[in-house]
Structures are given as C-alpha cells and as structure tokens.
Write a structure and sequence with these properties.
single chain, 362 residues, alpha/beta, 12 helices, 12 strands, 36% helix, globular
Length: 362
C-alpha cells in the first residue's frame, strides 16, 4: 500500500536512522524514508547512494539530504550528485563531522571536496565548525548554521520523569564501537577507580561486526571486564531504539562521552534533554554546543584528550568521573520543564531554517 503523501517537498535522508534526521518534517516538507514510492519500492531508512541510483531517474523526490558520507565510495557519490542534477533534485549536506569518525582523513576530505565542487547547500551545526571547514577546504561552502536541537521530542517527555536518584551515582555509556570513541579504558578505569559498591555502569551497545574483531581489538577485554564487575550492566541491541535509549537515560545520572576526537555530539544533546550530567572530552565543537544552552543546562564535566601525553588521558578521565560523582550527589536532577519549553521553540526555528534551505527560493 502506498503511503499517504505528506505536504510540501519530498525529502530523502541519507541515512534516516538517527533522531536528528527523523525530526526534520513539517508543514512544508516531509520524509520519504520508510514510505512506498510510485514504483512500488519502499525507501529504506538506511538508504544508500547505490539504492538511489538503482531507482533513477530521481523525479520522485525534491530534496536529498546527505548526513554521514563516510561509507559512500567517492565515484558512487559523484554519480548520485549527477543524477540529482539531471532530475532537478536539490542536495543538502549537514556537516555533522569535520573530521572522519573512522580516521581516514584523505578519503573524507576527498568526499568533502566533491560536495564543494557540486551544487550542494551545506548546513553546519555550529559557527566554529563552518570556520574550521573553510580552513580545511580553502573555500567557504554555501552554508547555513542550524543547531542540532533536541534528540528526544519534548512532547515525549511531558508525562515522564527521571527515576528517583539513589545515594550512589548511576552511569551510562552507549553507542557503536568506533575509532573516534574509546570504550575500553573508561570501562576499566570506572571499574577499578569507582569503589562505591552501589554505583552502577550501564553499557548499551550496538551489535558488533566482524570488523570489530580484527587483531588487537579491545572488544574481548571490554567484555571480560564487564563480566567480572557485577556493577556493570551490559546489554546489546542491533540498533537501540529511541525508547530504549531514553529509558536508559532516565534511569541514570551521568553520561560518559569518551571521544578521542569528534566534531559534534547528539549524545551531548541527549544529556541536555534528559538533564543528565555529561562527563565529556573537550573535543571538536562540543563546547560551542554547550554554549548554545549554557544559561539553561549544567556545564559538562570536561576532560581534555586533545593535548598532552596520551598516557595522561586516564588520569584526566577518572578525575572527571570523580568530580561528576560529587556534583551528581548534591543535585536532584529532575527533568527541566523550562528547558523542554526552550526545545519546542528552538525546533520551530530549526524547521523554519530548513524550509528556506530545502526550498532554496523555489
């Protein structure tokens, strides 16, 4: 059965698995991912460039919104941009990252230069990331700065509340295994450094792939550490749902964000939504994400993994954990209804900005 068409412009997100993409719909544009198009095919949530090319001409969409382009081969991406030009499809690219999450800097830069050479409108989540990208590429892309915004819809939290705090801090860490995020040393440091027998650490992991078990992989030691500390509660999902992540956050006090490098963080925005105290590496443009809300949310407990000798990173992380535990013990961290109201107004402004970006003066 063909899904009922939404109003306005037809948008495909590549991909549309994240809350960031799924919330971008309004009276002037709607998302095609997950719906059936006129050919009878259903656009996948995790659509790829190859899938789109197999369903050319792309006359069935108006806007292609690119997000994470690391997995697309440059030649395939170039063909997709050409197909969009042939069908009059407007291409928008959100630069979530100004540095590859997987560490292949040259291939990442090649993809960025390909987008720069095409008729693509860029979106940056912070002003400082636009400045960094200009320095990286030696040119200023046609761009708009639009903040990340909420991760959990405010209306989904109206009748929710954080689980009652205990005398001991409850920690949460979740996400996929990536080179840009250290999971092993934080877990070992937490297990050995946090001596409170009632403290807990919940690990909500995305399913491992064969690539996670290459020689020297930290995964076996991570699992062994989790098995030997009963305070560590490990669970794994193919791809954790929004509800699973929200429930885990509402049952926690402190969110661990041990990025080795990165540009922006949806998890940091989640911490703001749920009034969690983030323990966060000071990397990329995360401090500016905080400054966008600094009068409304608690400042993260920062630790610096960007300077100094790498052998000192553990000291800095565990000190931040200890500081966060002290802060969490003195504050009753209920959901902040005033901040949720702020998120509603912020989202209205975000949709207005995207109406302009997607419409492009049409």
């Amino acid at each position: 059965m063909v899904a009922s068409p939404g109003p306005g412009l037809r948008v495909v997100h590549l991909p549309a698995r994240t809350p960031y993409a799924r919330k971008l719909h309004g009276p002037d544009f709607h998302i095609l991912n997950g719906t059936e198009i006129s050919s009878g095919a259903t656009v996948p949530a995790a659509v790829t460039a190859t899938w789109l090319l197999a369903h050319a001409p792309l006359t069935w969409l108006d806007v292609l919104h690119l997000h994470h382009i690391d997995i697309e081969e440059p030649a395939v991406l170039e063909r997709l941009l050409d197909a969009c030009a042939d069908s009059g499809v407007r291409v928008v690219f959100t630069a979530h990252d100004t540095h590859s999450m997987h560490g292949d800097v040259s291939a990442f830069t090649e993809r960025l230069r390909l987008l720069l050479s095409a008729d693509v409108h860029w979106v940056f989540l912070t002003e400082s990331s636009r400045t960094e990208m200009t320095g990286l590429l030696g040119a200023t892309p046609p761009a708009t700065v639009i903040p990340h915004g909420y991760v959990v819809p405010p209306e989904a939290l109206r009748r929710r509340e954080r689980e009652q705090a205990t005398a001991s801090a409850r920690y949460l860490m979740f996400g996929a295994s990536r080179p840009s995020r250290d999971q092993l040393s934080p877990i070992i440091n937490w297990s050995l450094g946090v001596t409170d027998p009632s403290s807990t650490l919940r690990l909500l992991l995305r399913a491992f792939s064969p690539a996670d078990f290459t020689p020297g992989s930290p995964v076996p030691l991570l699992l062994e550490t989790a098995r030997h500390d009963p305070r560590i509660r490990l669970s794994m999902r193919p791809y954790p749902t929004d509800n699973e992540i929200t429930d885990a956050g509402l049952a926690s006090d402190i969110l661990l964000l041990p990025y080795l490098w990165g540009s922006h963080s949806g998890q940091l925005e989640l911490a703001f939504d749920l009034n969690l105290l983030p323990v966060c590496s000071r990397t990329g443009h995360l401090p500016e994400q905080y400054r966008q809300h600094e009068q409304l949310v608690a400042e993260p407990e920062w630790f610096d993994w960007s300077t100094g000798h790498p052998n000192l990173f553990g000291d800095r992380f565990l000190t931040a954990v200890e500081n966060a535990s002290s802060r969490a013990g003195f504050v009753c961290r209920r959901l902040d209804r005033t901040f949720l109201d702020h998120r509603v107004q912020e989202h209205k402004a975000i949709l207005t900005a995207y109406t302009e970006v997607y419409g492009g003066g049409r």
